[in-house]
Structures are given as structure tokens and as C-alpha cells.
Amino acid sequence: MAHKQIAFFNHKGGVSKTTSVFHIGWMLAAKGHKVLLVDCDPQCNLTGLVLEYSHSEEYPYQEKGRFLNIRDGLAPAFEARPVPLSPVELQPILARPGLYVLPGHVGLAEYESQLAIAHELSSSLVALQNIPGSLRWLIDITAKSIEADFVLVDMSPSLGALNQNLFTTSDAFIIPMAPDFFSAMALRSLSRILPKWNQWSARAGEQPVLQDSAYPWPGKTPKYVGSIVQNYRIRSRDGKEAAPTRAYQKWFDALLSVKSDDLIPSLTNANLVFQENIYDNANAALGDFLIEVPDFNSLIAISQSLSKPVFELSRDDIKNSGSVASNQVDSAKNFKKIYTAGAEKISQILL
User: Fold this and answer.
1) Of 25, 62, 164, 330, which sits most exposed with the smallest number of CB within 10 A?
2) Model's pTM, two decimal places?
3) How does pLDDT run across 134-167, given as a tens digit for each residue?
4) Domains of the chain with CATH codes
């Protein structure tokens, strides 16, 4: 079975896209899937997080004559070299068998304007015809080299040509967000933008020059898997299960309202959702959030320093003692339950 490529996208920054890709990818691998994480954000936060790269060192995933990062892998297509695209040499995550990373590169941003021109003019300028389909082609042949089941793409917070391409050539997408005013605003914006991107992709697929290129336009219609809301505080009241504080609950309600009134109807009209029974069977109703992740608090700093997900942190990793350590260990266990349930929903929807 072919792998499923999932785009993690929101043009609002600060919503933990990279954290979501890392944690969900790790959990899918823990459940026995082969998973490829692709760093397509020129800021390279995923590469730095997962591969423990120190920015004070020379970049280890760049070497003349080898394809070790996303930019160098794409170079033959974008620089019109007379050689075909080849799989990028992936970096395995030794602590989690089955998990691999395709490292990012700051220079990927250099291709943004060229890609935008190719999107608009490839039908009239044959010299550009190999560019639009090259991103998905490279990811596909690289994922095939490890027989991946899932490819998770970490994207930058922008509405540029690179993200337009990555989104429209993916099989599915997840929208991370935070419970705040600007995330609600971003959802309304996405309800307008994503259908337009899909319409553009459909027109691109009808261009003979793109179908006859070395890297044909894949003709995908990405489907909405769900939304992740995170970075909020919880509190237990009257002995009940912990829930978002009243201040955050206000924005939970606002996000759910925008989802039901704007986002879901817009995506449905654009054929960007699965049939409703698929969500119901996965216990991932369209009207709900796919995953709800409260604030990691001090655990996130430990997680990042060790390049491990929060839910994999042990008492030895935490290094505190007494009740503080016990509470943090319990918190890590709760996050494991959250991401386990989330990974199960994703795999049930897509496989």
C-alpha cells in the first residue's frame, strides 16, 4: 500500500506544528508504522529538535555529491540539471525504530519565488514544467526507500508557493491551533484559502505540459483529518476531570464555532473532507478536535533538550525528586494517553 502524506499546516505561527509532527510521528512509529518526518520549513526547527543539531556546529546534513537534505534533493529539478531526482539519504531516529527524518535546509526558501513562477507559467514555459511536481516526487521516492506508511510534513507559517504546493500534493492535512483570538481568525482565513488552492491544483492537473513532465503533477485532493488544539491550562473543579480554565474555554468555544460555521462547510463544499462515517468510526467526529493537548509546562524544555517526546520522559530524565517528580511523571503518562488516542484516530481514518 502506498504511503499517506499528511501536511501539518496553519499560516498562523506559534501553534506547535513542529511539536505535533514530532510527537505524532513518534507515536505512529511506536505503534508499528514506518514514519518519515519531512522538514519543509526553512527555519529547520524540526531538524534541530529531532536530530539534536547544535547551531554552533557546521551543518552535518550537507555534503557535495550527496543528497542529505530537502533543498539539495530538489536541486536537480529547480536548477535544471541533466540528472533525475534521487532519494534523499534519511536520518534514522535510533531511539525510536521505524522513525526517520528528511532534514531541512534554510536554502529551501531560495526556491520559493521560482516555484511561484513555475506555478503560474509552467503551461507556457516548458523549461519550468518539471518544477511543480518535483516536491511530491522527491518525497515519494524517498519514502519508498524505507517503505514508509506515513509521511508527516512540517510546513512554515506562510501562504507562499511552497506551502501551496505541499498542501495540494498531500493526501491529507491536519490543522494545529491554539485557543486564542488569532487562531480563530486563521481558521476563517483557511476556510477561504484552502478551497482556492484546491481549485488551482485541479486546473494544474488539466495542463498537458505538467502531465508530460519528468515529474507529473500528482492530482491529489487532500482530505481534512482534524484539528489539534494545544497550549492551554487545565484545572480540576469540584472533583471533576481536569478541563480548560474558564479563560481558555472561551476560546475553545470560539474555535469550535468557527469550525462548525466556516471551516467544515467550506471544506465539505470543496470535497476536502472524508465521508462522515469515516470520522465517526475513528471516534474523531468532525465537530470535535482530533487531539486536545494541554500545556506541557516544564516538561517541554526537558523534552527538547533530550530530543524525546514529552510522553517518553522517565523519572531519570526529569531529574526532580519528591512530589514534583511524581507529578511530572504522571503528567508524561497522561500525555502518552492523549497521543496514543490521537495516533489511533489518524491511522484509522487514513488506513
Assistant:
1) 330
2) 0.96
3) 999 999 999 999 999 999 999 999 999 999 999 9
4) 4-298 (3.40.50.300)
